[in-house]
Amino acid sequence: MAAAVQPYPIRFGFVGPDDAAAIDRHRRIASEAWRIELVTPRTILESYHWLRIGASEIAAHRDGISITSPMLVAMDRLGLFDRTRAPAPDATATTSQLKDFDAKIATTVGFLWMVSDDNERATQIAAGRAYARVQLAATAQGVVMHPLQQALQEYPEQARLHAEIHALVGAARPAQTVQMWARVGFAEPVGPAPRRGVDAHIVAR
């Protein structure tokens, strides 16, 4: 996986179960950042914009966040799920997600990150290419990856954690940027995500 980034101007880092203290710090930052995103109305509503609930929406869009939970699908069909209103911090929709995410983070045995020396557009594109190659390399080894973008986002509520994750992985600010941060490990197999064809991205003129 580390070798996969070598053609790009990206530094690859990884921590595993042999460094329990570092793993605990990664887990704490991930959990806190996820909580902030869920209880900040404008950020959770941004995610709501990309919800695809039920088979018909998933097939129509083939992007975003696919939801197939029978209960949520039924609530949406009955008009009981309002995608324009953020749930309260103590609402079941919020607390259940926090509980589920914390349980996942608590069992995470490894984290990886990718750091660049600048944040120019060309560097961002190179980082995306590098991440795709890392994910392919991981898949070849039976390893799964889950991106953790919350603490990497640049809005005021995340500022402290944004600084913490950069410091934790040795990314000197303001020049260096953590382009990707993900938890890694092993999991039960899942089906492929919906994908759009090439014709949805390229238009002949």
Q: Would you kindly provide a written description of the structure presented here, covering whatever features stand out?
A:
This protein has 205 residues and is α+β, with helices and mostly antiparallel strands. It has a domain at 3-41 and 88-185: 3-Layer(aba) Sandwich (NADH Oxidase). Helices cover 43% and strands 15% of the residues. It has a 4-stranded antiparallel β-sheet. A two-stranded parallel ribbon has the order 2-3. Helix 1 packs antiparallel against helix 5 (92-106).
How do the strands and helices of this protein lay out in sequence?
Blueprint: E1 11-15, H1 20-39, H2 41-48, E2 51-53, H3 54-61, E3 65-67, H4 70-77, H5 92-106, E4 110-116, H6 121-140, E5 144-147, H7 159-168, E6 177-185
Parallel strand pairs: 2-3
Antiparallel strand pairs: 1-4, 4-6, 5-6
Helix pairs in contact: 1-5, 1-7
